[in-house]
Each structure stands twice: as C-alpha cells, then as structure tokens.
Design a protein that fits this description.
Number of strands: 7
Number of helices: 7
Distance between the termini: 84 Å
Helix content: 40-55%
Shape: elongated
C-alpha cells in the first residue's frame, strides 16, 4: 500500500512528494481467508434442507439461505433488509411475532407449524436462537426451520396401524381402551 504526500513550495506548486509504503500482505491474507470462510459457510447453509435466516431487533431479515429460493421461491438476497411482516404477510407474522419477541428477549424458542408454500404442504419444526452480544444483550435471532413432514406422516401412519386392524380397517382394542379412558 502506497501513500504519496506532495511537497509544495511557497506558491503552492508541487516540488516533489513523500512516498510511504506499507506491507499489507498479512492484512490481505486475512481478508482473503475471511472471505473464503464466508463462502464456505454460505455454500453449506445454501445446501442444507433447512430454512436459515437472521432477523434483527427491528424484525428485518439480515440473512437468508438458498433454501428460501427452493421452498418459497424467494431470492435470498431480496429478503435482506425486508421486514418479516412484509415477506410472510399479516396472518403468518402474527403467529410468529410473539415467538420472535420472546427470542429477542433472550429465550430460545422451539415450535412446530404447518404451512403450504408453492402448493407443497410442510410440517416445520422451527427454532429461534438469540444472538447474544458479549454484554448479554440480544442483537437479533437466528431462525432454523426443518421440514419434518416425512417424520410426521410416518408417525401418523404408526398411530393408525396401532389403533386400527390392518385387515378390516376397524378400530382395535387399543383404540377402544383409549376412548373408554376418555369417556370415563
């Protein structure tokens, strides 16, 4: 890195200059390593089957991974700076606002929701993780939403198999016992 400082005469004319040079190789190496690390993290998050985002204290997206494009048809870069309310709509926002506020207050929040996006029904297991600063304050939240539809479908099928006869489709003794306990 070079800095040139002109040497001026009494009339303001340039008589020469001072040249100062600094070796910034370590700084450039550090910046390149940092950029490479960010690229690796972006590649990993963009290829995980999980919606990953960062939401700041004003409920604005500051990061969204590539899964937003795959699941919701939204360009992740277009989400940055946008309010959650504007991106998900008033109904979905109200369902999530309380949990966002709880996470911004410092609490880890885990919940499940069902939603349909681009015609695909999904059962999502969502976590809001507070981003704590060294002083203990929360500057935003990380959101992670995993599609657990296959798991929920298998769970429902197992429940069905446990309560109904597979040959006749009629309720079995287990269902009778469950209903009898409820009735009593």
């Amino acid at each position: 890195q070079a800095h040139m400082v002109p040497v001026r005469d009494r009339m303001g004319g340039v008589r020469g200059f001072y040249l100062m040079t600094f070796d910034v190789t370590p700084l450039k190496e550090y910046q390149n390593a940092l950029a490479a690390g960010e690229d690796r993290l972006r590649t990993i998050t963009d290829n995980l089957p999980v919606l990953i985002a960062y939401i700041d204290r004003e409920h604005r997206f500051q990061f969204a991974n590539g899964t937003y494009r795959d699941w919701l048809g939204l360009d992740p870069s277009s989400l940055v700076g946008q309010r959650v309310l504007d991106m998900v709509g008033p109904a979905l926002y109200e369902e999530r606002r309380i949990n966002i506020d709880r996470a911004l207050a410092g609490e880890r929040v885990d919940f499940e929701v069902q939603s349909t996006t681009q015609g695909v029904p999904r059962h999502l297991q969502t976590s809001y993780l507070p981003d704590r600063r060294p002083d203990g304050s929360v500057s935003g939240i990380y959101t992670l939403s995993t599609d657990v539809t296959v798991l929920k479908t298998a769970e429902q099928q197992m429940r069905q198999l446990a309560r109904y006869d597979t040959l006749t489709g009629l309720p079995n003794r287990m269902l009778l016992t469950d209903r009898l306990n409820l009735a009593l």
